[in-house]
Amino acid sequence: MTIFKAYDIRGIYEKDLTEKDAYMIGFYLAKQLNISDIKVAHDLRLSHENLTKFLIQGLLDADVDVVYCGKSSTPNFYFSLFGDINSGIMVTASHNPKEYNGFKIMYEGISFDSRNGLYELEKLVQNDEFAKALDYNMIEDSLSNIPLHDFLEEREVTIFSYNKQYSMFLMDFYDILLEEKEKEAIQNLNFALDFSSGVSSISVIPMIEHTKLKCKYFNEKPNGNFPVHSPDPVLAQDFMKSQFSQEKLFFGAAFDGDGDRLVFFDGDGEIIFQDYVIAKFIDFFSEKNRNFVCDLRVSRVISDLAKEKNLDVGLIRVGRAFYQDYMVKNQCVFGAELSGHMFFRDFHSFDNPDIALIYMLKIIATHLLKNKEISFKELFEKYKKYTKVSEKSMKVKDADKVLNSLKLKFKDSIVSEIDGLSFDFGDYWFNIRKSNTEPVIKINFEARNQNVAKIELEKLINFIEKL
Hints:
The chain is α/β, with parallel strands linked by helices. The protein has four domains: 9-163, Alpha-D-Glucose-1,6-Bisphosphate, subunit A, domain 3 (Alpha-D-Glucose-1,6-Bisphosphate, Chain A, domain 3), CATH 3.40.120; 189-271, Alpha-D-Glucose-1,6-Bisphosphate, subunit A, domain 3 (Alpha-D-Glucose-1,6-Bisphosphate, Chain A, domain 3, 3-Layer(aba) Sandwich), CATH 3.40.120.10; 272-385, 3-Layer(aba) Sandwich (Alpha-D-Glucose-1,6-Bisphosphate, Chain A, domain 3), CATH 3.40.120; 387-465, 2-Layer Sandwich (TATA-Binding Protein). 39% of the residues lie in helices and 21% in strands. It contains 16 helices and 20 strands. The protein has helices at residues 19-33, 48-61, 74-80, 118-127, 132-144, 148-154, 163-177, 180-185, 201-211, 237-244, 274-285, 300-309, 320-330, 353-370, 399-409, 450-465; strands spanning 9-12, 37-42, 65-71, 88-91, 100-107, 110-111, 158-159, 190-194, 214-218, 251-255, 262-265, 291-295, 312-316, 334-336, 342-344, 387-395, 414-416, 421-424, 428-434, 440-447. The strands form four sheets. Strands 1, 2, 3, 4, 5, 6 and 7 form a seven-stranded mixed β-sheet that branches. Helix 12 links the parallel strand 12 (291-295) and strand 13 (312-316). Helix 1 crosses helix 5 (132-144) and helix 7 (163-177) packs parallel to helix 14 (353-370).
């Protein structure tokens, strides 16, 4: 499986993605884009040091000036690009398991991906016109044995961290967004943040300390082994339920490994489906805005809400780059994916869960000012009109065969082929698509009631398993 995905570069370290890949990618990316300077940041996965060293060496060998921003969450990385140098590379595999790593590339303030040159970069690396594979063989041992800090000093790479600046940005955002009465309404609120042993804590905890809110932290120390649970926040529910059973908390939220996703949990530690979170945000923003966007897998309740309030809610395919483009073009204030990515016009239409958390605190405050007894769970009850099933991932031998078989069997019920296949059977509907980062298919299923959901989903899974 190629490491060049639709939106970024990603693979299992030392199996799919190697130091040689990092070196070649750094060099040929610089040649392809003809850039003179670039920023490089990374999360704290165990493989970050070697991949960062070889990536930077490739850039340096292409005569690019590198600004090393160090350990960073992805939103922090985006923030660093809002200034003079707006191209950068983030070394991360986001929410994937610990054995993965990769590169998220930004060029002149926009995503560099399969739409604008990523696959061409793959060809440049494969063709290796400048014989950089030979150069790699000459430097492999020396670079592997030198610590990252010493490497940066020897190469005289500019080092500048944006962690403090970004934390201050979040503090200001909170202070400006929430009115004084709203801050008072949540001052004694007990809630919890799970950082999944990732890097969000670096910037978010200083912001929370600034607010003086009563927040409990879980897994706040970055650890590339992710010892407590997966860096995918959707998989944190068992952990959160165990923690919430020990003390009374109003709500919780969990970040992923690189801090670009966020999921919310109610007072019992039960996950709030992202569909309902999206609906709540659209409801909140709709008081002053009417243009939104979310991925086409969302609950039908989103379409119902759009009709009820006469909103323009675009339904598009998965992928952060598509959201930024759509939001800018259509002047959207908010966009979201079911995976936990949430995009804000306030942040140049990039995804930012830190801002999502601040907005959620404001939403909570507005409800508490009306009803002090309301629970977090009750904020979302009105959106639960249908039976929504948690996204199901299935490992299959041939994903294309599965999709083609479903397309052939149920061709009259297909309503969209924008991202995988979307079907509507009247009493139930679902989307099935291939993952862009893992060898699985993903099913998002919803029905008019629980009985229909149970019966029809079981039929669908049985059909797929027999292929």
